[in-house]
Amino acid sequence: MARAPLKCKIGPSILNADLSNLYAESQKLLDSGADYLHLDVMDGHFVPNMSLGHPVVKCLRNKIRNTFFEAHMMVSEPEKWVEPMADAGINQYTFHVEATKDVFPLCRRIKEAGMQVGIALKPGTGIEAVRQYIDSADMILIMTVEPGFGGQKFMSDMMPKVQWLRNNYPLLDIEVDGGVGLNTITACAEAGANMIVAGTAIIDAMDQQAVIASLRETVESSIHKCNV
After folding, report:
1. Does 135 qualify as catalytic in the annotation?
2. pLDDT of residue 199
3. How far is residue 24's CA from residue 198's CA, in Å, rounded to a whole number?
4. Confidence of residue 49 (pLDDT cuts 50, 70, 90)
5. Is residue 188 over pLDDT 80?
């Protein structure tokens, strides 16, 4: 598929935000320069934790009309939630390749529901698990921690996966998620990631705008090489 020139996109994960004040926290992130919101959806089965679901997403969408919402579906049966998430106003539905045997039909369903397709890989999953599906996806997410909890340590040994994707798919949106912050963004940017999910690094910052700007500057300094 034809792809647009690569752009840096910063998408804070709201998992570590004050969820009792979700709208205000989300709006503050957007006012601080975030490009999109990364919404972690967990079922307590695929990962050992639970989080918000489509009713909460729908409420947030009613308050925030035009922002790009990505749902990171850390769930065992991603097929079950395609239509509810589309109805809730999700723009990109990112599911785990480990969670389904029917990747191609799921990609079709997501697109038919009017959403973009993201495919995620856990740290223990090799890049070969997703190779045949890349042309059906709008984005590939390389997890840089074990999915399920915020605040984990960044796994730098995931960067060869990012690098392989960037070398073979120069214009593909490649997202990294987990332990990404000011100390680890250079590794992500140099490997070729252009979509950056950062949770605690942004949420807990005294100056969220400065952190987002710094992350963006690092990524954009590497990204022009991919657009040449």
Report:
1. no
2. 92
3. 18
4. confident
5. yes
- DSSP bridge pairs for 180: none
> Phi and psi of 190, rounded to 5°?
-70, -30
Q: Which of 40, 43, 138, 173 is catalytic?
A: 40
Specify the long-range contacts of residues 25-32, CB closer than 8 Å, at least 24 apart. 25/203, 26/60, 26/64, 26/67, 27/63, 27/64, 28/208, 29/202, 29/203, 29/208, 30/64, 30/67, 32/202, 32/208, 32/209, 32/212
64, 26 Cβ separation under 8 angstroms? yes
Q: Give the pairing type, strands 116-121 and 139-143.
A: parallel
Q: Which of 202, 213, 219, 95 is nearest to 162 (CA)?
A: 219
What is the per-residue pLDDT across 26-38, written as a single tens digit (0 to 9) for each?
Answer: 999 999 999 999 9
Residue 191, both tokens: 């490997």
Other CB atoms within a 10 A radius of the CB of residue 192 amount to 24
Mean of the pLDDT values across residues 183-199?
97
Give the separation between CA 199 and CA 169, rounded to whole angstroms: 27
What span, in angstroms and rounded, lies between the C-alpha atoms of 228 and 223?
9
- pLDDT at residue 95 in the model: 98
Look up residue 218 and give its DSSP letter. H
Does the structure show a pLDDT above 70 at 69?
Answer: yes
- Considering 43, 102, 177, 207, which one is annotated as catalytic? 177
Helix (H, G, I), strand (E, B) or coil at 14: helix
Contact 171, 3 (CB under 8 A): yes
40 annotated active-site: yes
